[in-house]
Design brief:
This protein is of the alpha+beta class and 216 residues long. It is built from five helices and eight strands; from the N terminus they run βαααβαββαββββ.
Length: 216
């Protein structure tokens, strides 16, 4: 793997997740970790984080929950299978939203969810601190419909201890994305706003920025 080129992106990375996932969990502090142990029946993957993250790579404290959770609660994506996650992010909020919208729309259509609704997502930002492997320009891992080649590459790079993969955003041409394979590849992340996306019964058609929700 030493022959792979590496590139250190200078942009701030952006990731969005559905607001159904809480902003603070057991990775934030020792107290929350204890709570997680007590709630192992419902948070089994998070409590047993050592199955997904090497002990030396584990990070705890403010800003690390979204990062650690991405590895524990992984779902199949371009460079990983459902067995272990990765931290996916993009070079802009709009690109992160388009990536999220594409994958979520596919899942919602599979479930036959055809009602017109809105979904609210939370954005997190951070800075890449360890250079990822640069696969931009490699057409074999940018297939819009098949993840076979890219997942094979992701498995090899993970086994080799690489920090991440820099690639072209397939859902927002002209922009870039990154799949971080280890938590230390990034700084702790911070919340950077909420966005509402409108679902027309078949796809997400528009989005808007919103302020933090306040209690009525």
């Amino acid at each position: 793997m030493a022959d792979w080129p590496r590139e250190h992106p200078q942009w701030t990375h952006h990731r969005v997740i559905h607001t159904k996932h809480p902003p603070i969990d057991l990775f934030e502090s020792p107290e929350h970790m204890l709570l997680g142990e007590l709630e192992s029946a419902t948070s089994d993957r998070a409590v047993h984080w050592h199955h997904f993250v090497n002990k030396a790579d584990a990070r705890f404290g403010p800003g690390w929950s979204p990062v650690m959770a991405a590895f524990c609660y992984g779902r199949e994506a371009r460079f990983n299978t459902g067995e272990r996650g990765a931290y996916y992010a993009a070079d802009s909020v709009s690109t992160a939203l388009r990536e999220w919208a594409h994958h979520t729309a596919r899942a919602w259509r599979q479930f036959g969810f055809s009602q017109e609704v809105s979904a609210t997502v939370r954005c997190y930002t951070g800075v890449i601190v360890e250079p990822p492997v640069d696969v931009r320009g490699d057409t074999t891992v940018h297939d819009p419909d098949s993840y076979t080649a890219s997942q094979n590459l992701g498995a090899r790079l993970t086994a080799a201890g690489e920090f991440g993969i820099l690639y072209e955003s397939v859902r927002d041409p002209g922009h870039e994305a990154v799949a971080l394979l280890r938590p230390p590849a990034t700084t702790p992340v911070t919340q950077a706003g909420l966005y509402v996306l409108r679902w027309d019964g078949d796809q997400f058609i528009e989005y808007a920025y919103t302020e933090e929700f306040k209690t009525l």
